[in-house]
Amino acid sequence: MSLAGKTAVITGSNSGIGLGVAYELARAGADVVINSFTDRSEDHALAEQIAREHGVKARYIKADMSVGEECRALVETTGTCDILVNNAGIQHVAPIELFPAAKWDAIIAVNLSSAFHTTAAALPLMRAKGWGRIVNIASAHGLTASPYKSAYIAAKHGIVGLTKTVALEAAGQGITANAVCPGYVLTPLIESQIPDQMKTHGMDRETVIREVMLARQPSKQFATIEQIGGTVAFLCSAAADQITGTTISVDGGWTAL
After folding, report:
1. Who contacts 68 (Cβ-Cβ below 8 Å, separation ≥6)?
2. Phi, psi (rounded to 5 degrees) for 165
3. pTM of the shown model
4. What does DSSP assign to residue 196?
5. Which residues are catalytic?
6. In terms of DSSP H, where are the helices of the chain?
7. Across residues 143-155, what is the average pLDDT?
8. Partner of 182 at 20 to 30 A CA spacing, among 19, 87, 106, 218?
């Protein structure tokens, strides 16, 4: 599988799943643009490292995914976009009656509206080339629900619906749109939560992972960043030319329950 000559824009990609996707696409030969809302030397150093390790072009572009104009500007500044991976996301947990309205607005903006804006900017570029891949990082929570996560779940369900709509609008034009729905993925953020969970539940590491954190994930194993990145790379390959408008679950059987 080679993505040489393609340019991929990955939102929310200076850490975690987004950075893993950037590495896997670069490994397949794509030039990559990584993104977040900060503008630190270490952000740019990540792009330099990707370029150095994989012999591709890589750059970091600051853009706040809660602001529609900046979402569109990210794609426009890149100048070309063969592959768009909408990964940016934030979370807040609270009962609906206590859920801060500002948190709701922020989560919908970053997790859902940003994908609308970047897609609207990228589609004309893809149509001009007759080829494109849009991969939206949804979640098992785009297919099912849990209490206290109303904004996140609403946004991820919305991402699944947006994916299907884009797929239909772009059908027959060499452009596909799909959503990847991970369960729990062992990112640095999740790793940092394990000690607190061990203390709260009085359990050792393996028990708290199996019985608490992965209680709804039948495999009792985290998905890895590399597995999510590999799934995205597959969806960008020629083998996936006729896969569009669908969801691919990487959730250890969560949504099979």
Report:
1. 109, 113, 114, 117
2. -65, -45
3. 0.97
4. H
5. 152
6. 16-27, 41-54, 68-78, 101-108, 114-129, 150-170, 188-201, 205-208, 225-235
7. 97
8. 106
